[in-house]
C-alpha cells in the first residue's frame, strides 16, 4: 500500500498523473467511462489500500461480505492484455490483465480474466477467472 499524490504517476500504468487518471474516479468525482478504466481504477485502489472503493465498485450480487486488503503487498504494475467490449455504449465488457505485487523481496502476480457490467449506468466488477 502506498500514498499517491495528484501529480505522481498513476499506479494503473497509463503514464498519466494520478490526479487526471484514477484519482478523480476513486474520489467519486467522476465515473469510469469504460470497463478497462474501471479495472485500472480498481488496481489503483488496491495499490493505495482504498478498500471502500474496491468494495463499492463490485457488483452487489457478487460482492464479498467482508474484504481485507493485505497492507504488506505492494501492487506496483498492471498489464492489460486484452479488452473486449466495455466501451461507453456497451453494457458489458471483459478485461484480461496481469497485476504484479511484491512483499519485501518476494514477488508475485495475479493473472485474471474479469467481467464487468453496468449498474445504474456505472461500470462495476462482476467476477473474474484466475488464469495460469
UniProtKB/TrEMBL annotation:
Signal peptide, first to last residue: none
What SUPFAM superfamilies does the annotation carry? Answer: NTF2-like (SSF54427), Sec-C motif (SSF103642)
Spell out the Pfam families in the cross-references: SEC-C, YchJ_M-like
Q: Where is the YchJ-like middle NTF2-like domain?
A: 34-128
Assigned protein family: Belongs to the UPF0225 family.
Q: What is this protein called?
A: UPF0225 protein GYA93_20305
According to its UniProt entry, this protein's organism is Gordonia desulfuricans
Amino acid at each position: 500500500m502506498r500514498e499517491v499524490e495528484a501529480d505522481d504517476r498513476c499506479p494503473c500504468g497509463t503514464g498519466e498523473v494520478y490526479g487526471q487518471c484514477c484519482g478523480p474516479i476513486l474520489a467519486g468525482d467522476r465515473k469510469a467511462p469504460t470497463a478497462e478504466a474501471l479495472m485500472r481504477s480498481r488496481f489503483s485502489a488496491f495499490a493505495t489500500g482504498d478498500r471502500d472503493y474496491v468494495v463499492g465498485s463490485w457488483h452487489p450480487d457478487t460482492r464479498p461480505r467482508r474484504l481485507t486488503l493485505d497492507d504488506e503487498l505492494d501492487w506496483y504494475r498492471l498489464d492489460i492484455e486484452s479488452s473486449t467490449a466495455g466501451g461507453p455504449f456497451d453494457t458489458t465488457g471483459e478485461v484480461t490483465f496481469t497485476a504484479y505485487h511484491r512483499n519485501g523481496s518476494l514477488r508475485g502476480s495475479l493473472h485474471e480474466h474479469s467481467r464487468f457490467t453496468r449498474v445504474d449506468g456505472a461500470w462495476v466488477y462482476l467476477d473474474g477467472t484466475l488464469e495460469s
